[in-house]
């Protein structure tokens, strides 16, 4: 794409026209755990990482972001979500992509798990549902073992908004560098 900067200079840039997306971190406050997924992600596999733990997410297209978040959580994790708490909308990679992602957290209970999840067979996603304790997820984040940006951000947002769901104080410092493998 070629466009003109404010200075009048014409520049050419590569743009991935992705559009809107949404992501949600479903968490169970009673059992202090969250639902996440793993699935084959070609760019991640190309980078040499086999498993990437992430929150349910999907393209919004023309649908409302809350509708998409609920649909993705059901398709991927088999969970029905009620009220969604909007965290923010954020540009995922503003240098190269038009993707603007609506980010949510949402409570669920054991009774809200009404289907196996795993994604839609016609989309060939082969999703594995993972339910992990919030403290284990937090430890994984701090050790660098949770490298998906939307997932890391939503877990931090949950920790700030609902600190009583986590054990101990928030540790100072940034997460250490990790590979993102589930085997860490």
What descriptors fit this protein?
two-stranded antiparallel sheet; single chain; 25% strand; alpha+beta; six-stranded mixed beta sheet; 184 residues; 4 helices
Structure description:
The structure is a single chain. The strands form two sheets. Strands 3, 4, 5, 6, 7 and 8 form a six-stranded mixed β-sheet that branches. This protein has 184 residues and is of the alpha+beta class. The chain has four helices and eight strands. Strand 3 and strand 4 form a beta hairpin.
Short description:
Helix content is 22%, strand content 25%.
Order of helices and strands: EEEEHEHEEEHH
Quick one: how many beta strands?
Answer: 8
Q: Which spans have pLDDT < 50 for at least 5 consecutive residues?
A: 179-184
Beta fraction: 25-35%
The gross shape turns out to be globular
Mean pLDDT: 89
The share of residues in helices is 10-25%
In quaternary terms, these chains amount to single chain
Question: What composes the largest sheet?
Answer: 6 strands, mixed
Number of helices: 4
Draw up the topology in text:
Layout: E1 2-4, E2 10-12, E3 20-28, E4 33-38, H1 42-46, E5 57-59, H2 65-77, E6 84-91, E7 100-107, E8 128-133, H3 134-142, H4 149-161
Parallel strand pairs: 3-7
Antiparallel strand pairs: 1-2, 3-4, 3-5, 4-8, 6-7
